[in-house]
Write a structure and sequence with these properties.
This protein is an alpha/beta fold. The protein has 2 domains: 126 residues, FAD/NAD(P)-binding domain, CATH 3.50.50.60; 104 residues, Alpha-Beta Plaits, CATH 3.30.70. The chain contains 3 helices and 15 strands. A hairpin with a 2-residue loop joins strand 5 and strand 6. Helix 1 runs parallel beside helix 2. The longest helix is centred in the N-terminal third of the chain and has 14 residues. It starts with a strand and ends in a 5-residue tail after the last strand.
Length: 240
């Protein structure tokens, strides 16, 4: 038996703008994908974006406005209904209006696909030599390894690992010059330029700075669009 819902207005999206909009207006929301946040990104208020998102998403859940949470596999838009596919189960939502904040995992999306403007890439490194210093942040004029953030190791709080943040053009994402290996080499060079030294071995000798990749995260930065069609609105602006 298919479970049915009747909602006049529906929000579709998992961005910070989407959850803020749903919370302010008391509207039900459907997450079309897992949220994508860079841990160190701050809002103009100096709050961390991921923490603000989590706080608002929790309030939506407590109000019963996000009944499917992160269980949605994909959505199918029909003229009067939304089919919500959660693994091997299907739910049907009757609606009047939909406001979209994204186009991922949506069949019959009523607008053209949103163009990818750029990629936000973060290379997370485990530092094995060069872990002890006073720096928390380094920056560069280049878009590739534009910033380096340092953070304490979980089990060794006196020592630090790091993450390199880059903004890469879609046409260059898979180029050799923009791989995690090149990000690691530039990160080491920037650390050296900042005066960071490798682990001390003897009174006069230090090992070179060394690190290994933990993971690479790639987030899409899409074009900002505000468009209306029939009973649908598409709004991909970060702040609106």
């Amino acid at each position: 038996m298919v479970v049915e819902f009747k909602w006049d207005d529906v929000i579709i999206g998992s961005t910070l703008a989407a959850v803020i909009h749903a919370h302010k207006r008391g509207l039900p929301i459907l997450f079309n994908r897992s949220p994508c946040f860079f841990k160190f990104k701050k809002l103009p208020s100096q709050e961390y974006e991921c923490e603000v998102w989590q706080s608002i998403a929790s309030k939506l859940a407590l109000r019963g406005l996000n009944p499917f949470g992160d269980k949605v596999s994909f959505l199918r838009i029909n003229p009067e209904t939304i089919e919500v596919i959660c693994h091997n189960r299907k739910y049907v939502i009757y609606y009047k209006n939909i406001k979209f904040f994204d186009d991922e995992n949506i069949e019959n999306f009523p607008f053209k696909a949103i163009d990818i403007k750029n990629y936000h890439v973060s290379d997370w490194f485990r530092v094995t030599s060069g872990t002890k210093h006073d720096h928390w942040f380094l920056d560069d004029n280049s878009e590739f390894v534009k910033k380096i953030y340092f953070f304490t190791k979980i089990t060794l709080p006196k020592y630090k690992d790091c993450v390199a943040e880059s903004f890469i053009d879609p046409a260059r994402l898979n180029d050799v010059e923009y791989t995690s290996t090149m990000a690691r080499l530039k990160t080491i060079a920037m650390m050296k330029d900042a005066g960071i030294l490798g682990t001390k071995h003897t009174r006069t000798f230090r090992y070179p700075i060394k690190m290994e990749l933990i993971e690479r995260q790639v987030f899409k930065i899409k074009e900002e669009v505000l468009e209306e069609k029939d009973n649908y609105i598409l709004d991909t602006r970060e702040f609106n």
